[in-house]
């Protein structure tokens, strides 16, 4: 049984590695057109910079600044909810591979990095905004 199992797994592995070859070639062109193919994969810091420079993220930074400047409880709550939903959307987008394998193949190829730093930043901002909304006013 040992040699037969070895031949079956090696044959199946050779067949399966050939299948996503065309998908891997096009994935990074679809997800990140400006990405330059290098030997080093994208890091979490690269992903933090890429996600922080999105227009929606810049708008959230502006809303957070307005909330901190005006100290209005409603703006703190709105900012906290939007940051929490942004972290949720990024996490689901990167780690829910049941519907779309493009993100998975982009991470495998190396043009997408880990979004953990951005998700941590979004959760930290959400926590600060929640504290600002709940702290007692004097």
From TrEMBL:
<keyword id="KW-1133">Transmembrane helix</keyword>
<feature type="transmembrane region" description="Helical">
    <location>
        <begin position="115"/>
        <end position="134"/>
    </location>
</feature>
<feature type="transmembrane region" description="Helical">
    <location>
        <begin position="76"/>
        <end position="95"/>
    </location>
</feature>
<protein>
    <submittedName>
        <fullName>Uncharacterized protein</fullName>
    </submittedName>
</protein>
<keyword id="KW-0472">Membrane</keyword>
<keyword id="KW-0812">Transmembrane</keyword>
<feature type="transmembrane region" description="Helical">
    <location>
        <begin position="49"/>
        <end position="69"/>
    </location>
</feature>
